[in-house]
Amino acid sequence: MEFLQIIDTDTQFNNIFIYLSIILFFLTFYLIRRKNKIEQEVNKKVEVLKKAFDISEESIFILSDKYKIIYANKTMKNLLNLNKKTTFDIMPKIKVKKEWESLDTFVSNITKSSKEKSFTFPRSKLRINNTKKEIPINLFINSSTDYNVVTIQNLTKEYEQKLNKYRHKLTLLPNKFQALMDLNAIYSKMHLGQTKLAVVMISIDNFSQLRAIIGYEQANVILVKFARYLETFVDKTSINAYHTCHNNYLLTILNEDSQKNILLLCQNIQKELGLFYKLDSIKLHLSASIGVSIYAQTGSSQQLLDNAYKALAESEKKGFGRLTIYETKKLNSKYTELELYNSVHEAIDKNEFIVYYQPIIDVKAKKIVAAEALIRWIHPEYGFIPPDVFIPILEKTGFIVDLGRYVLEEVFTQQKRWESFGFKEVQVAINMSLFEIETEGFVKNVEHKLKEHKLNPKLIKFEITEGAAMKSEKVVLKQLMALKSLGLSISLDDFGTGYTSFSYLKKFPADILKIDKSFIDHIIKNEEDQRIVKAMIELGHNLGMKIIVEGIETKEMVEMIASYGCDYMQGYFFSKPLPVFEFQELLRKR
Ligand code: G
Ligand code: G
Ligand code: MN
After folding, report:
1. Does the beta carbon of 520 lie inside 6 Å of ligand 2?
2. In this structure, are residues 273 and 226 in contact, taking their beta carbons and an 8 Å threshold?
3. What CA–CA distance (Å, rounded) separates 355 from 577?
4. Among 5, 101, 359, 433, which residue's CB has the most CB atoms within a 10 Å radius?
5. Does residue 204 have a pLDDT over 90?
6. pLDDT digit string (tens) for 247-284?
7. How many angstroms separate the alpha carbon of residue 401 from the centre of ligand 1?
8. Closest Cα to residue 275, out of 225, 217, 316?
């Protein structure tokens, strides 16, 4: 019995085993069939895609669901030099952010980490394994469950075109556009006193005649040879060489204090060129005229070049192979009021006036929320002229109105630029003189300019000094009201210096009181100043105005005045007035 039972369970087990095997067999068969069918379908789809991709000008890969390359179109093969290969054992590397990654890893990570089906990575880089060459690309990925399509747009041509714009066609030295850009950058540094600059303009003498003698090709050889020679002076920090046009070259030399060294360098260049070219039949001697301008304080970057050209012209006038130095007179060189008076007329047209920006800081938020626009006159001969010298002259001559319009235009344009570049909003305060306010059409012009620039009036504030505000109360009040109704803010500048009556102050439509620097200069030691400033802040707040304290130069001042409840601060402690590029850097940092 026992024995039988054992046999019995054994046969039962055998039967179950057979049934299971049969089921498994059919299941496997079904799955394999299904898989084949899916594969066939995928293959069909992929085949259709391949046909389209074969003729595409974009480089395309198809990766399998396991991220193996199963197809590369012709453009891709060309791009990766895969023409003779039938298998794709080389996986190119790409750089989308900082790291280089294998393309398959990247695609795998990106498609697994997101539900999206399409991905775009503009301005990425591609590198083929074992090569150093980086190709600028736009990268697109389209994924489905069964395969991934990777499309690569090769941007090399675009990049080259862009580069070409800034290089001389023949010699490939940076050209005059690059020179102007570089000079602009150097120029803003110079204003902060960090950099000195010498501009050296070099012209190969008598070049058109030379070309007539030796022919176009040979003349080009000389131009290229000279370019390569100048390049030997270039090091990344202090000397740059440019081929500005035809037979003209430019060197910029940074932070070389010794004029003697600059002259020596120029003389060496002249000597070297003399050795360049010898044709036995024609005794040909090459020479170069050079003009140098050396700046401690500067004009605009265009002016840097203009003066170097002037020096060059001077050299050429004297004959071949000469060297002239054009030096701007040093800062604070003597000028008479009459001389300024005479040059004011053209100064605006010549772009000698430049708007600087000084940040205004919100005390609580500790952030830049506004800026004051402060005009600077950089005279081509006298260098930097302080506003308290030239503003009275402008007022006397009536040019202050033109300057005011110029500043307005510059600031409005700048605001729109910041808007378009996505900078955070900062309100800009524009100083205005009583003469401007009194002119007919002042408010109309502001209104017109706001419309023309489509500028939000909240971004603009006008500062009028207390002294000016007192002089012709009625006119000023009327004009300020009109400005306010346009949505602009008003700030009463130099407050505390002008003895405004309380009744007038109450009527005065200011949003902001700006406490004069003279109360701040000695505030740390002077208790009377401390009491006055406290009282002024309270007074302003009681009238519903916000308070700016200017002339903040130390941390102690910041702390003391913040404790009085002042709303905004401005002063060298935070920053000096800066050219727009420098100011922008501050905006970026905050
Ligand atoms: O910028 P400080 O940097 O030295 O300026 C001195 C004075 O010059 C300022 O107090 C200001 O009143 C005046 N000022 C600066 N820029 C302008 C401007 O654009 N217009 C007028 N009217 N005055 C200005
Ligand atoms: O228009 P207003 O008088 O507000 O112009 C401000 C003037 O004060 C400008 O000339 C500006 O350069 C100057 N200024 C701004 N901050 C400081 C500072 O902290 N110290 C000194 N000495 N001058 C300053
Ligand atoms: Mn001011």
Report:
1. no
2. yes
3. 9
4. 359
5. yes
6. 999 999 988 878 888 889 999 999 888 887 765 555 67
7. 13
8. 225
Q: Closest residue (by CA) to atom 5 of ligand 2?
A: 374
Counting ligand 1 atoms within 8 A of each CB, the residue from 353, 375, 463 with the most, and so the one to mutate, is 375
Decide: 274 in ligand 1 pocket, CB within 6 A.
no
Of the candidate CATH numbers 3.40.50.20, 3.40.50.2300, 1.10.10.10, 3.30.70.270, the domain formed by 167-331 belongs to 3.30.70.270
Query: What's the chain's average pLDDT?
Result: 86
- The C-alpha atoms of residue 52 and residue 39 are separated, in whole angstroms, by 20
pLDDT of residue 212 exceeding 80: yes
Contact call for residues 280 and 293 (beta carbons, < 8 A)? no
What is the Å distance from ligand 3's center to 427 Cα?
Answer: 14
Structural domain spans, the chain: 1-55, 59-159, 167-331, 355-514+581-589
Reported pTM? 0.54
> What is the distance between the alpha carbons of residues 95 and 109, in angstroms, rounded to a whole number?
14
pLDDT tops 80 at residue 157: yes
pLDDT at 188: 66
The Cα-based distances of 194 to 186, 299, 328, 582 in angstroms read: 9, 15, 18, 13
Q: Does the C-beta of 186 come closer than 6 Å to ligand 1?
A: no
Superfamily grouping for domain 355-514+581-589: EAL domain (3.20.20.450)
Per the model's pLDDT, the better-predicted residue between 523 and 87 turns out to be 523
Both tokens of residue 282? 């024609």
Please check the confidence at residue 286 and state whether its pLDDT lies above 50. yes
Which residue from 412, 375, 407 is spatially nearest to 391, judged by alpha carbons? 375
Answer whether CATH 3.40.50.2020 is correct for domain 59-159: no
